[in-house]
Amino acid sequence: MTSAGNSPQPIPDPRAKAALHRLVAAELSLPSRLGYVALLLAASMMTTVIGALWITEPALRPRTQLAFAVMMVIGLAWVVFAIWALTHRRPLLAGHAIVAGRLALTFTSLFLIGAAIAARTAGGVAPYVAAGVGVMMVAAAAGLLWRAHATSTRLLERRAVLEREIGTKGR
Amino acid sequence: MTDHDPLSRAREDEWLVVRCQLGERDAFDALIERWHDPIWRYVRRITGDDQAANDLVQDLWLRVLRGIHRLRDGSKLRAWLFGIARHALMDRWRDKYAAGAVSDVDLTDLPADEVDLGRQEDLEAMEHELARLPVVEREVLTLFYLRELSLAEVSEVLAVPVGTVKSRLFRARQLLRRELESKGGHV
Hints:
The complex is a heterodimer of chains A (171) and B (187).
Chain A: H1 14-28, H2 30-56, H3 62-89, H4 94-121, H5 126-166
Helix pairs in contact in A: 2-3, 2-4, 2-5, 4-5
Chain B: H1 6-22, H2 25-47, H3 50-67, H4 77-100, H5 120-130, H6 135-146, H7 151-158, H8 162-182
Helix pairs in contact in B: 1-2, 2-3, 2-4, 3-4, 4-7, 6-8, 7-8
């Protein structure tokens, strides 16, 4: 540590503050957060399809099983990474969470529809397993979207109350 | 923004926090405009180094961005921010801080405002001498007098009981008084 308090009134460097504003803009950018949501969705769906094939295909060769196992591990690793990033590095604020929730609901629904069509047309057990997991993913996405709306509503109500109290309306 | 009394200040802080939690970009900018300089001065006072203060404050704002959605009571923003600043400082200086830690005497009923430090010239004189104090005493005086946190808020920031804050303030004031008296000043 250097000697403290050489100046009685230290003055912050305005360039440091300007850099902070840029940092905030980069950190808050919606695409960077939705990128992790997209990664989570893609990795979940890929892992589901591979898992469904792995557990339902009869008499797989050992090296095919090994390949499935490796792909499952990779897929799950991406899922874990995306969840970690969304909880620690780029958490979704209320507005972001609504967009992410809609995105998740749309893509999980498409996945479920695709699995259902495959089950009807192609047959076999794998599409049913994938559709079963798809139902759970749609339910999770719907739950997250509902929670995002509830959080947003609560915050908007609180904001309105505070704006009335401190007279910030229209500022 | 109006900035008259603690209640208005707390409401305005909460208003900014709520808007940040909604994801409003300009609320984060306003938060930085409102709090960057006080926090920077606090960190600068403790570190004694401009560059270290810049680095720590940048780290702090990253922590704020990543943690503000978990802040339940936005009116406690002030204590929360200074608490994060202190964590950032401690992460940086863990060893030094541990070495400088002092045993806390039990002075829980000591009035914290026994010395009048209200006048601006007193505060400025105190700022000059703060640099000579050990980091623990410098920190508690900075938070209480220069950043005007309440005893409860200082307690929250330092993660110690209010009694410990009082005892640290007591010791810090004694040290500061000695410094000022040796220079012919007063506390």
